[in-house]
Amino acid sequence: MSEVTINQVRAYTVRGGGADYHDQAEGHWIDAQIATPMSKYPEYRMTRRSFGLNVLGTLVVEVEASDGTVGFAVTTGGEIGAWIVEKHLARFIEGKRVTEIEKIWDQMFNATLYYGRKGVVINTISCVDLALWDLLGKVREEPVHQLLGGPVRDELTFYATGARPDLAKQMGFIGGKMPLAHGPAEGEEGLKRNLAHLAEMRSAVGDDFWLMYDCWMSLDLNYATRLAHGAQEFGLKWIEEALPPDDYWGYAQLKRDVPKGMLVNTGEHEATRWGFRLLMEMECCDIIQPDVGWCGGLTELIKISALADAHNKLVVPHGSSVYSYHFVITRHNSPFAEFLMMAPKADEVVPMFNPLLLDEPVPKNGRMSASALDKPGFGVRLNPECELARPYTH
Ligand SMILES: [Mg+2]
């Protein structure tokens, strides 16, 4: 029995990339014209920063144990998240044993139910939870994947998300997922352009490489259905997050209406076992895509994944670097993983949370061996060159 306890929790913010990967300098592909629910307003159509996609910034949570060991994690949440940790959640964390992860989660979630449940509160709970797993791994000198039951395969295989699937293919990835540029407000002309871009990429990558469209909640049911049928001849493997996340009814209809064999995937902006239960019981999608930094953390992802297993759904977590890798390598129902191409032109592999983490592993030739994850905790360190601010204390 571990008697090591948690002495202190501290919350920091940091700007410029990191876990808030939308927080990039101008000229990055992730800030090019991408269809969003705000695209109906021409003044917010050309970049996502224009409507504030990067306002939150990165949240860093550190937990320090009585033996001096420090665990940490990062997610999107910034100053609001830091306030929640310092002013509210700290009381459920400090003084507990490092093994009491389940109890801490339950207290954090239930104590915030009246203003939480989803969004930035759950991002924040996720960050604390991941920091606790990192701490437990470091105290026990074991990688998190060992705490989860150990790898079920020797390596991870990745598809790449970014503007250049053609380059991702050359780099050895199994597929490429592109952002959709034009939304319904741009009418027939926009739809034609979306399909023309897919056709162009298909001719660049050949027949067998996976191509997917990420629609980032931007479409309506009719547009999404027409896009899916138009995309069939160019072998679109899946249509992702086509509708707003609250439209479970729309997703269920879309899944019935897409061409046979095309997958409907979603879930990166869904949270907790209850949100994913709705997605699964309403037959909304084929693959669920929880983000471990946004869905409730690893403690909750374990439950979501078990539920998915019983529904014969695959779980392919959204982004999240090492926090996803340690999970995916331990799951039979997570056969591959996502890698976000964070180079500004999507033309080289750089660490996903660049520049915030040191020792962050990246795929080589689209793969990563399980042994790349064989370090205590999540196996990463904070880059001392990134300037952390601690806006609140307790
Ligand atoms: Mg997505």
Automatic annotation (TrEMBL):
Keyword Metal-binding among record annotations: yes
Chloroplast listed as a keyword: no
Positions of the record's site feature: Transition state stabilizer: E338
Enzyme Commission identifier(s): 4.2.1.90
Task of the protein: Catalyzes the dehydration of L-rhamnonate to 2-keto-3-deoxy-L-rhamnonate (KDR).
Oligomer status and interactors: Homooctamer; tetramer of dimers.
Anything else known: Reaction proceeds via a syn dehydration.
Name of the protein described by the UniProt record: L-rhamnonate dehydratase
Organism: Franzmannia pantelleriensis
Classification of source organism: Bacteria, Pseudomonadati, Pseudomonadota, Gammaproteobacteria, Oceanospirillales
